Write a sequence for this structure.
């Protein structure tokens, strides 16, 4: 029996349909000679279709999960954002915010603020899957997608405002959300923020066990 692609199979069992016959047929087809590319394509298609169906069937639950993710991340940034980022920057590089306003040296804060941002994204993803354990996968994907859409909209909006005036004031709580999609981060957050949410969320996402009763 050929060894199944581990990452693809992990995604299938955590985010895909909880359907033993489908999983069995997929494994049998792969064992019969189908390629890894074919297997990955089937897994990703199954994950996408499952998410669409679950979100469509449970819109209120989806909105609650997305709201939970956003509330968690914003609370983390509000209460711990500046204190953590400033503290780490001061500890590692003896950086001080007041001096930074005079010298325009902000790179230590950019590094530690980025750490705060991705930590908040990851922790919020864990909260989503822990509070929504039944069929948590599609809800996690919905939260990651909402983050991507907000980052794209924020990046475009700020770019437009920059063209009209010299600076754009951003509340510090929101700064930790949108900063990862700004030019000095090479817009990397547009990819890394949703990926972080999915990757960390998968750690807490329950794995479908073949032979066990499925969740409704």
């Amino acid at each position: 029996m050929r060894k199944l692609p581990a990452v693809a199979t992990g995604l299938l069992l955590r985010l895909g349909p909880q359907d033993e016959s489908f999983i069995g047929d997929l494994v049998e087809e792969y064992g019969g000679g189908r390629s890894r590319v074919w297997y990955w394509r089937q897994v990703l298609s199954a994950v996408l279709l499952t998410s669409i169906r679950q979100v469509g069937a449970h819109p209120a639950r989806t909105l609650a999960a997305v709201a939970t993710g956003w509330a968690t991340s914003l609370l983390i940034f509000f209460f711990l954002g500046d204190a953590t980022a400033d503290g780490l920057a001061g500890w590692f590089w003896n950086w001080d915010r007041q001096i930074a306003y005079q010298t325009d040296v902000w790179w230590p804060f950019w590094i530690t603020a980025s750490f705060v941002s991705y930590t908040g994204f990851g922790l919020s993803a864990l909260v989503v899957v822990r509070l929504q354990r039944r069929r948590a996968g599609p809800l996690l994907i919905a939260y990651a997608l909402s983050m991507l859409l907000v980052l794209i909209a924020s990046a475009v909006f700020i770019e437009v405002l920059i063209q009209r005036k010299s600076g754009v004031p951003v509340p510090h709580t929101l700064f930790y959300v949108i900063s990862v999609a700004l030019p000095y981060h090479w817009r990397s957050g547009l990819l890394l923020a949703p990926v972080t949410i999915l990757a960390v969320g998968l750690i807490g996402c329950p794995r479908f066990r073949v032979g066990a009763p499925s969740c409704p």
The CA atoms of residues 119 and 196 lie 9 Å apart. Confidence is low (pLDDT under 50) at residues 211-216.
